[in-house]
Amino acid sequence: MRVTRRLSVAGMAVVTALAFGFTAQQGADAAPSRGQALTPGYAVTTSSHGDNVRWHTPAVPARSVQIASTSSSAGAGSILTLADKSAPSDYTFTFDLPKGAMFQADGSGGFDVLRSVGTGVVVGLGHLDKPWARDATGKALPTTFSVAGQTVTQHVDKTGAQFPVTADPHFTWGWITGTVYFSKSETIKAAGSAAFIAAIGAFAPPPFDVLLVASAGWYALVATWASADGKCLKIKSTGSASEYSGGYCR
Question: What's the CA gap between 221 and 3, in Å, rounded?
Answer without folding.
Answer: 39
